[in-house]
Amino acid sequence: MTDTAPTRRSRLTDVPSVSPEASAAGSGYLWRFWLIVAIWVAIVAERSAALGVSVRDPEGQMFVNRLAKALVFLVAIALAEAVLRARSRGWSLRSVAAVVRERWTMSRLLLVVSGLVGYHVVYLGYRNLKSWNAFNPLRDDDLLSWDRALFLGHSPWVLLHTLLGESYAAEALAVVYRSFTYVIVLGLVGSLALIPRVRHAYVFLCSATWAWILGTLCYYILPTLGPYAAVPAEFAGLRHTPITDTQAEYLTERAAFLANPAAPDAFVSLGAFASLHVGFTTLVLLMARYYGLRRLSIALGFYLAGVILATVYFGWHYVLDDITGVLLAVTAVRLGRWTVSPPAALGRLFAGWRREPT
Questions:
Q1: H/E stretch holding 18
Q2: Which one of 45, 70, 85, 251 is least enclosed by Cβ atoms within 10 Å?
């Protein structure tokens, strides 16, 4: 069975039909999702035992705090949507409460919360595996040479510095780069809160989950730190921004981890190939198209261009990282859709790809 993208008549604020989760398709997607989570947990546990390094959540930043913030966003978005939809009944606490009860059945609540928990479990594993990748030899020289070959011997970030300047552009692109976290959280939580059928919302959730898994695989294929760490002199002229401090902090953290991996707060956040900033921004764009949000898709297209510029401009990523990030997103969305609605037969896979918009 292949899932069908919501039609444009199915708007984000539509009232769902009665018990939409109890459709003929059932909730097999939930079990498939948690099977992926369980396999991922087993992989993380095996690597942790093999390396002798425990799974960590330093100060709750990778799991506890992120999950808590996601739940807060979920409540805020759900209440805001209920207030807007209650207009037709007259704004009152009673009408708002009635809208909330209609949308948030116990079935929907359990599906959404369990999905968020599983997603953040995968994210915690991703961050730990990314940290342990510091033990592997670096391949920055390879990507550096490939990027320069693509640009006829020039460093693409240096070309951007020359074209855009190193002052005002740095400040503007720093804002774009740092906004990424909020775009991802709002996109994921917003889909779970607003999409009438949770099954359709799970396409976003499963795609995002696959993106972390595929991103981890890429990190291990080509362990790299990024241009700013490989050729720091080529970024020395950039105006100081919060990005500058973050980059220095990440290098310090990596050195501390390699010096004493057993330290309870030792953690690494660096990994260049592939760019998950580009990958996840592309994923959000693809999901906006999947949900029929044309105007949002156009806006996200411009935002994606800004993110791509920022990743190369600041030296977080090589151009090849960004290209791979786009391909990663396309693959993750396909895997996410298959997780929710597996194809009935191999012969229908390519037909489904041609027939259904991504």
A1: none
A2: 45
Cis peptide before 299 (omega within 30 of 0): no
Q: Give 10-residue mean pLDDT values along the chain (358 residues).
A: 49 42 61 95 96 88 90 92 78 80 89 95 96 94 94 95 94 94 91 92 96 96 95 94 95 94 89 94 96 94 96 96 96 95 58 42
Return d(Cα 199, Cα 211) in angstroms, integer: 19
Tell me if 10 is assigned to some domain: no
Helix (H, G, I), strand (E, B) or coil at 60: helix
DSSP code of residue 238: S
Q: What is the pTM of this model?
A: 0.88
Asked if the structure places residue 15 within a domain, the reply is: no
Range of the domain at 146: 25-355
- Note whether residue 17 is domain-resident: no
| Residue 19 within any structural domain of the chain | no
By the 8 A CB rule, do 29 and 206 touch?
yes
Q: How many domains does the chain have?
A: 1
269: phi > 0 → left, psi -120 to 50 → alpha, else beta; which?
alpha
Q: What's the DSSP call for residue 136?
A: S
CB 291 within 8 A of CB 200: yes
